[in-house]
Amino acid sequence: MYIGVGPESGKRVSDRDAFSYACERCLYGDDQEQMVFMQMSRECDGIEEFADMLVEWFYSGNWIYDASDNKKIGWIIRFSDNSLRSFFGTYADAIKSAREEAAPKGLGFVVN
């Protein structure tokens, strides 16, 4: 969980929403934010590296990270072939596990 301070005070962004929130803010942000966003997207080798880099950069200013949101809980992974798998861990670990299983089979997935 990222907790806003200063000009971002009162805002709370979960780990799960951190990337999409940062993307949206950059989309409607000032020219410098948009320039940094585009530069990072060109320099990264893949979307995962880009997501990590964007989240690290975006939340390095007026945000404090609260790791208590990163707790281990049960997740259901639904693959595009309609198979299901349960997973116990953090959301990030569930995504990584699903990606490892889905990629060789060419499947998509959703983690809930």
Defining traits:
single chain; 112 residues; alpha+beta; 3-stranded antiparallel β-sheet; 6 strands; 42% helix
Detailed description of the structure:
With 112 residues, the chain is of the alpha+beta class. It is 42% helix and 21% strand. The protein contains four helices and six strands, in the order E-E-H-H-H-E-E-E-H-E. The strands form two sheets. Strands 2-1-3 form a three-stranded antiparallel β-sheet, with no helix packed on it. A three-stranded antiparallel β-sheet has the order 5-4-6, with helices on one face. Strand 4 (73-79) and strand 5 form a beta hairpin. The longest helix is centred in the N-terminal third of the chain and has 13 residues, at 31-43. The radius of gyration is 16 Å and the shape is globular. The two termini are 17 Å apart.
Give the overall average pLDDT: 91
Q: How would you classify the helix and strand content by structural class?
A: alpha+beta
Count of DSSP-assigned helices: 4
Got a strand count? 6
Low-confidence stretches: none
Write the layout of secondary structure elements.
Layout (H helix, E strand, L loop, with lengths): L1 E3 L7 E2 L4 H10 L3 H13 L3 H12 L4 E3 L7 E7 L4 E6 L1 H12 L6 E3 L1
Antiparallel strand pairs: 1-2, 1-3, 4-5, 4-6
Helix pairs in contact: 1-3, 2-3
